[in-house]
Amino acid sequence: MTTAPLPSSLRATLPGDHYTDPEIFRREQERLFETVWMCAVRAADLEHPGAFRTVQVGRESVVVVRDRTGRLRAFLNICRHRGARLCGEESGRLRRALQCPYHAWTYDLDGTLIAAPNLGKMPDIDRVAYGLVSVHLREWLGYAWVCLAEQPPSFEETVIGAAVERLGDAAAVERYHTEDLALGRRHRYDVRANWKLLVENFMECYHCATIHPELTDVLPEFADGYAAQYYVGHGAAFGADIKGFTVDGGEGFAPLPGLAAEQDRRYYAITVKPTVFVNLVPDHVILHRMFPLAADRTLVECDWLYAPEVVAGGQDVSASVELFHRVNVQDFDACERTQPSMASRAYRDGGVLVPSEHHIQHFHRWVLDHLAAADA
Ligand code: FES
Ligand code: FE
């Protein structure tokens, strides 16, 4: 089989095996997901001391817990004694401490080893050294971000920098005060596709006219296929007759306080590589967190966040949730349609990036650079 060389105006995507090969996925886990900042948990989900949530980060299970001083902490979800998984549940609330279900080693919520059967006979054991293995944690936009690297990359440059790169200024995203918003709805999607297909799909709007009828009604410039998020720093404007970012273009809620005039009636999207999408509209924020579980499987948690009074007042958020839920389903269906073909000989040398998608090549470069870095 031969493939014709691409004209110079076009570029090739990654070869098909980068979406299917378990060994390449394992390298991504090791050299990418375990070295960069990953968005793990919404901080307000862990309201009370002892509240915890476990997430998959690369090859590791990480438990994020609120300690008794109110601070969020992250640890590898592994007992130091013989390695039993500490928290088997995805979420819950610990009473006072983390107790291993195997031989009952018990850890304070700050990770220190505080008790173990017969530990009195081992007075020399260092309770901090044999405490839980802690994981770096930062909070931003109301989420706990974790990093497994011993020396994490700069949070300001690699995470907040994504917002600066997209919007020109971190203040533009801070004005939404996402950390103060309330959760109106959460949808989880178990997508049978490689995580990079989801990122590539989010980065382009070439598909918008074909698969997103509701979204292109609200944001007519998306129908041109040029992802406004990458070509127009000001974001995508609502159509003239559109009242709100809702499934039928009907009225939304009052704009969030503090937004700049140019942020009204516009949609902005930010990709925080590798696994977060932030969508900003005047009256709510939609935040996607992805958890790549296998070469061909990605779990996505999508939160719809509103002004606290909207949620506390029991206002009906379904018209705005329905818009992006449909977009999500349309996008993830497209990714699942593509995934099986990645193993075909037709895709052995990859596919094509048309001119409006050349920025996706930067994403590919970024992935490849990470995969190569540890070889250097
Ligand atoms: Fe946890 Fe033994 S493995 S106490
Ligand atoms: Fe889409």
From TrEMBL:
Cofactor dependency: Fe cation
One Pfam family it belongs to: Rieske
Keyword NAD applies: no
Gene3D superfamilies: Naphthalene 1,2-dioxygenase Alpha Subunit, Chain A, domain 1, Rieske [2Fe-2S] iron-sulphur domain
Domain of life: Bacteria
Tagged with keyword Cell division: no
Domain Rieske: 39-146
Residues that span the membrane, as ranges: none
SUPFAM superfamilies to which the protein is assigned, alphabetical: Bet v1-like, ISP domain
Keywords annotated in UniProt: 2Fe-2S, Iron, Iron-sulfur, Metal-binding, Oxidoreductase
Entry's Gene Ontology molecular function annotations: 2 iron, 2 sulfur cluster binding; iron ion binding; monooxygenase activity; oxidoreductase activity, acting on paired donors, with incorporation or reduction of molecular oxygen
Name by which UniProt lists this protein: (2Fe-2S) ferredoxin
Organism the protein comes from: Streptomyces purpureus
